[in-house]
Amino acid sequence: SSGSAGGGTSKPDYVTQDEYYITDVKVKTNPTKQDYVVGDKVDLKGMTFTVTWNDGYVEETDASYAIPYPKTIAIDTTEISVHYDSFTFTIPVGGSVSITSIEITEVPARTVYVEGEYFNPSGMVVSTCLEDGTPYKEVTDYDYSPKTALTKSVTEITITHGEFSTTLPISVCDGFVREAEDGEVVGGEIARSGAVAPYASGNAFTRNFQKDGTLTFKVPVDKAYKVDIVFVGSSGAVKEYNGGMPLETIDMSANKLFALSVNGKAVTIGDEAIFHGRRAEEATYKLFANWENVKVGEAILGKGTNVVKFTFTGSVYQNEDDSPASAFYDKFIVIFKEQTEAPDAPDPVAPVDPTDPDDPSVTLEEIGKGVTQKEAEAIIESGAVKAGDTSVHPDYANSGVAGGFSDKGFAKNFADGAVLSYKFRLKEASTVKIKLFGSTTSTNTEVKANSIFTLYVGGKKITLDDNVKFAASGTAWEIQGMDFGSFVLEAGDVEIKIVFDVVGAEYQGVFLDYLEITVE
Question: Tell me, what CATH number does 40's domain have?
């Protein structure tokens, strides 16, 4: 490098112009980056200077006060001028190599679609390429088309960046698609808010299925088909955290997470069905939204309505902190491959609800005078998670959390629309007192009943005032009772139903322990 001296200027911040000025600047180290591609911005990182002042003071500085020219590399750029104060230095650079194309250096998670879906670029990496075809730099400001609903005539997606374009082959076929959260969720959690939901199809996903929890879909077809069954999901098992956020996840095998059946018949899930772990450049919850298509099985669907059911094993994977880990499930897809001969699908038979008073085959629990206690985790009808089971939530069961609850279990994570329901047969007309016991999930937090759920007793909606609540407490998980009041009820069948209308499906504001019914 070379420099030419000129008149000095004052030292900034702590001296005056009249007293001090720079008499000499020398380059100590050149910039780290000296090889450029046309269009790159000049980067002076790594460049340092030795600066001498008129009083003899010498200091070393970085390039914070240096200005390059030009600031962008052109096809004919062979050197850049770096200005520091009134001193100028020349740095040779390479600027003869150009970007000539773009390339998809990592294909997206999904390349197979059912007609009517929209292309999802999640997981796709697009890079610029040099003249020799070598990928140079990842870009994120690319565009793609079409953005309309896909039809079977669409065989590729066009990716563009500036003047360059490339194509991604895709397949669009007949099939059936449902958001995972639109299936019948039993013993699992629907997440509609939080850090991951905005990156999920439909802005929601399912997770945290307890042992023997199920996710069921009904698939109607007008002909018999051979099909592939696909789950769009992501690993949620964290191998390494950084600052409390996931940095790396591990592979999760589908056949360890759940069993699969179609119309009651087991479907084999191969070892190749894996929700792959990934490592991010920096810790982020978006790591959980690396959705990929995982083919979990092949089956034959008969004409009619077919029942596809996933039965979960519970927490067989653990995070780095030994807490139970779950995969995240975003979308359920059935791809129709070819027509075949097969028996018609059996008409799905709704399971008998053992607490349904309208079913003549059901004998409800009959209660008379006295106190009856029903565990909240035993009367979950939908949309909540049962905690305390050692095989599902060891972090609760083996700690002071579950230990403070009746039967060492409780209900939590109530989704919008979640239902707790207890149906019984009252022996005679009576006055019945109803209380709900549980706790808040954090200290100094008050939770009013009318802010999170609606109560129905005997089919009538009950208005609850603001005093029906779990009061703020200095101790988390302190068991308290919400007093719903006294009700005069006729003899016969009665239902106590609690319907949650929380904001966001990841609501965790209460742990519910048990319902207490006192017949006077």
Answer: 2.60.40.3630
Composition of the chain by helix, strand, coil, percent to 5? 5, 50, 45
368 burial type by CB count under 10 A (0-12 exposed, 13-18 middle, 19+ buried) = exposed
> What is the mean predicted confidence (pLDDT) over 283-293?
90
pLDDT in tens, 443-502: 777 888 888 888 999 888 898 998 998 888 776 678 889 999 999 999 888 999 998 876
Tokens of 248: 């790396």
Tell me what pLDDT residue 14 has.
Answer: 53
Both 432 and 459 in a single domain? yes
Cα distances (Å, whole numbers) of residue 210 to 52, 230, 372, 386, 402: 70, 21, 27, 7, 16
Whether pLDDT at 26 is above 90: yes
- Indicate whether 42 pLDDT > 50: yes
Domains of the chain: total: 4
Please report, for the domain that includes residue 211, its CATH number: 2.60.120.260
Would you say residue 352 lies in a domain? no
> How would DSSP label each residue in 118-182?
----TT-EEEEEETTS-EEEEES--EEE--SPP-TT--EEEEEETTEEEEEE-EEESEEEEEGGG
On whether the CB atoms of residues 344 and 334 are closer than 8 A, the answer is no
Cβ atoms 298, 229 nearer than 8 A: yes
